[in-house]
Amino acid sequence: MLRLRQLVLAAHERAPVEQALRQLLAAPSAHHDPGVGRFGLTNAVLAAGCDFVEVVSPSAPGTAVGRWLTRNGGDGGYMLMVDGPPTITAPDRLASLGVREVHRVELPDVVDVHLHPRDTGGVLLALDAVDPAGSWRWAGPAWTGGSPTCAGGLLEVTVAVPDPGEVVRRWAALLDVAAAGSDCRLQLDHGRQHLSFVPGAGDVAAVTAARLALPGAERRAADVGGVRFEVVPLEEKT
Question: Model-level pTM greater than 0.90?
Answer without folding.
Answer: yes
